[in-house]
C-alpha cells in the first residue's frame, strides 16, 4: 500500500484525494484526544490529506483536534469545514469562519461549506463566501445536504457557479442520490463528497458484504467503502479514531471491484428507480 491516493479535480482545477478523513464525533471526550490526533496524523501519512470538520462537531472541539493533528504539517493538508445555517447570514458567515480559523490554528480554509439549508437566502450566504475568498480566508466554498432543487436554485444565485462540491450522505444503504444528483453532478463537473460512506455501523456487520470481501481479502466495511469510491467524482470522508481503522480505510481505496461485484451489490442493495427524498443524519 503506497501513500498515494487517487485524486479527483474540483471545478477550480484543484486536485484532491478521493479518500479523506472525517471528524464527526471527534473532540467530544478529551480522554480520546490523543488517539484521535494519532489517527488523523496517520491518515495524512497514508495520503488521506483531505480533512473534513465543522463548527458543529463537538461545538468546535473537532476543529481543535484537527489543529493539534496538523501541527507542523499544515502545508500537507486540504482542510474542509462547515458553517451552520444559523450562522449563514452575511455577517454570521464571516464571524463563524474567523472562529473556525482560530480553532484550526490557520489563516485559511481550503473549502468552506454551508452545512445544510436554513432560512437565510442563498444569495446572502454565497456573497459572504465570496467575500471570504477575496480576503484569502477561504480558497473555495461548497454546500452540504443539497438536493437537486437546492443545487438548481444555487445555480441561479449570483456567484453560485463557483460551488466546488456538495457533501451528502451516500453509501450502499442510502443511495437515493444515484438516481439524479450524482449523474447531474458528474455532468456539471462538481464532485460529490460522501459522508458516512460505510453507514452507521450497519454495513460493517453485513454478512452479504463479508462474503464479497472474502474474494478480495477485505472486510465488509472495506467493500462498502470501495463501492462508494467506484465513481471517479465521489470523495469519501469516513471517520476513523483508531490507527487500525485508518489503515483499513486506506487499504479500501486500492480495492478494485469487478463488474460482477458491482452487479451483485446492485442486486443486494437496489439502486433507486425513482426520485427519493435526500437522506440526512
Automatic annotation (TrEMBL):
Transmembrane segments: none annotated. Gene3D superfamilies: NADP-dependent oxidoreductase domain. GO terms for molecular function: oxidoreductase activity. Residues 19-268 form the NADP-dependent oxidoreductase domain. InterPro entries: AKR, NAD(P)_OxRdtase_dom_sf, NADP_OxRdtase_dom. Pfam families: Aldo_ket_red. PANTHER family: ALDEHYDE REDUCTASE (PTHR43638:SF3), OXIDOREDUCTASE, ALDO/KETO REDUCTASE FAMILY PROTEIN (PTHR43638). This is Aldo/keto reductase. It comes from Allomesorhizobium camelthorni. The lineage of its organism: Bacteria, Pseudomonadati, Pseudomonadota, Alphaproteobacteria, Hyphomicrobiales.
Amino acid at each position: 500500500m503506497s501513500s498515494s491516493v487517487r485524486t479527483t479535480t474540483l471545478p477550480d482545477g484543484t486536485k484532491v484525494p478521493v479518500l479523506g478523513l472525517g471528524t464527526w464525533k471527534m473532540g467530544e471526550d478529551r480522554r480520546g484526544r490523543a488517539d484521535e490526533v494519532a489517527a488523523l496524523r496517520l491518515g495524512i501519512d497514508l495520503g488521506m490529506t483531505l480533512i473534513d470538520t465543522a463548527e458543529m462537531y463537538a461545538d468546535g472541539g473537532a476543529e481543535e483536534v484537527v489543529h493539534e493533528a496538523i501541527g507542523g504539517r499544515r502545508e500537507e493538508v486540504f482542510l474542509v469545514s462547515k458553517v451552520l445555517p444559523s450562522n449563514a447570514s452575511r455577517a454570521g458567515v464571516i464571524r463563524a469562519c474567523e472562529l473556525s480559523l482560530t480553532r484550526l490554528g490557520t489563516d485559511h480554509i481550503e473549502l468552506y461549506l454551508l452545512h445544510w439549508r436554513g432560512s437565510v437566502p442563498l444569495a446572502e450566504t454565497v456573497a459572504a463566501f465570496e467575500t471570504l475568498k477575496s480576503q484569502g480566508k477561504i480558497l473555495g466554498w461548497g454546500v452540504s445536504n443539497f438536493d437537486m432543487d437546492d443545487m438548481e436554485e444555487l445555480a441561479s444565485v449570483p456567484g453560485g457557479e463557483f460551488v466546488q462540491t456538495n457533501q451528502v450522505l451516500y453509501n450502499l444503504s442510502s443511495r437515493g442520490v444515484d438516481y439524479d444528483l450524482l449523474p447531474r453532478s458528474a455532468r456539471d463537473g462538481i464532485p460529490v463528497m460522501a459522508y458516512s460512506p460505510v453507514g452507521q455501523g450497519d454495513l460493517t456487520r453485513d454478512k452479504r458484504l463479508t462474503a464479497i470481501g472474502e474474494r478480495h481479502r477485505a472486510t465488509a466495511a472495506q467493500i462498502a467503502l470501495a463501492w462508494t469510491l467506484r465513481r471517479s467524482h465521489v470523495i469519501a470522508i469516513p471517520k476513523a479514531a483508531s490507527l487500525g481503522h485508518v489503515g483499513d480505510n486506506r487499504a479500501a481505496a486500492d480495492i478494485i471491484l469487478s463488474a460482477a461485484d458491482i452487479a451483485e451489490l446492485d442486486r443486494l442493495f437496489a439502486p433507486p428507480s425513482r426520485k427519493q427524498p435526500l437522506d440526512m443524519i
